[in-house]
Design a protein that fits this description.
The chain is an alpha+beta fold. It folds into 2 domains: 205 residues, BirA Bifunctional Protein, domain 2, CATH 3.30.930.10; 48 residues, SH3 type barrels, CATH 2.30.30.100. The strands form 3 sheets. Strands 1-2-5-9-8-7-6 form a 7-stranded mixed beta sheet, with helices on both faces. Strands 13-12-11-10-14 form a 5-stranded antiparallel beta sheet. A two-stranded antiparallel sheet has the order 3-4. Helix 2 links the parallel strand 1 and strand 2. Helix 4 crosses helix 7. It is globular. GO terms for molecular function: biotin--[biotin carboxyl-carrier protein] ligase activity. Pfam families: BPL_C, BPL_LplA_LipB.
Length: 271
């Protein structure tokens, strides 16, 4: 089976670039943007050898997994564009549910019934990492902002060497291929991008994201460098920051960091 856009994305004349193998679909997408390529356009492969996750962590997609990046361009500020990552999470969670219907019905207790969005940009299945996302932005010569959203989905294998538990769709009993996931994703992305609407629709995206959030209302710890902050995960604010309520009842917005479920000891144990 070859990669194909879903009917909604195809009708919208979205671009598609398919690679048998590539270093990084994010790198390919940004190079296309710099060369004057037209947005929106997808870059996809089932074999990625030099991908990057958040904070430039290595994200290698072995053959059969889905490495996908979408290039968009907007006349918005970088801070507004950053909220597009939440639309990506909602879109991919929706696509995963669509391709997992059979597995979920066959095994009601399967993690295929338990996809959750982990702030700021992962998707978990039964508490294990299934998807990693990475958003990059760069101002183009015409003044527009090129935004590339990379999404790596573990379809047939879970990459080794990552911190924490990881899983893949095949381990969940989901028989969908990378091509199946992408077709569903291209349509759900088109839908969520429309709702996001250059940031004007972020309040709706925020609500959808919170409905699917991992750890909401529970104790979490955020580690940024050597600093660890713990509290109850209360919400995400209008800019996408995680809002914690600390033990002394302070509300603290967190702009970036690695999330660990539990108190500060859980974050320190990850060293």
């Amino acid at each position: 089976m070859s990669f194909a856009l879903g009917p909604k994305a195809r009708a919208a004349r979205v671009g598609l670039k398919v690679f048998d193998e590539t270093g990084s679909t994010n790198t390919d997408a940004m190079a296309y943007a710099r060369s004057g390529g037209q947005a929106p356009c997808w870059f996809v492969t089932t074999m990625q050898t030099a991908g990057r996750g958040r904070r430039n962590r290595v994200w290698v997609a072995p053959r059969g997994n889905l490495a996908s990046s979408v290039f968009e361009s907007f006349n918005v500020a970088p801070a507004v564009a950053a909220t597009l990552g939440f639309a990506a999470g909602v879109a991919l969670e929706k696509a995963l549910r669509e391709v997992s219907v059979e597995a979920a019905m066959r095994s009601p207790n399967s993690a295929a019934n338990d996809y959750r969005l982990k702030w700021p940009n992962d998707i978990l299945a039964g508490g294990s990492k299934l998807v990693g996302m990475n958003l990059e932005a760069e101002t183009l010569p015409d003044g527009r902002l090129a935004v590339v959203v990379g999404m790596g989905t573990n379809v047939v294998a879970a990459p080794e060497g990552l911190p924490g538990a990881v899983t893949c769709l095949s381990q969940l009993g989901v028989t969908a291929s990378a091509e199946d996931v992408f077709t569903a994703l291209s349509d759900s992305w088109h839908e969520m991008r429309g709702i996001w609407d250059n940031g004007r629709g972020f309040p709706k995206i925020r609500d959808l994201w919170l409905e699917r959030a991992a750890g909401l209302g529970q104790t979490v710890s955020i580690r940024s460098g050597a600093s660890v902050v713990s509290g109850i995960f209360d919400t995400i604010d209008e800019t996408g920051c995680m809002v914690l309520i600390t033990s002394d009842r302070k509300r603290i917005p967190i702009a970036a960091g690695d999330v660990y479920f539990g108190d500060a000891a859980s974050a320190k144990a990850a060293d």
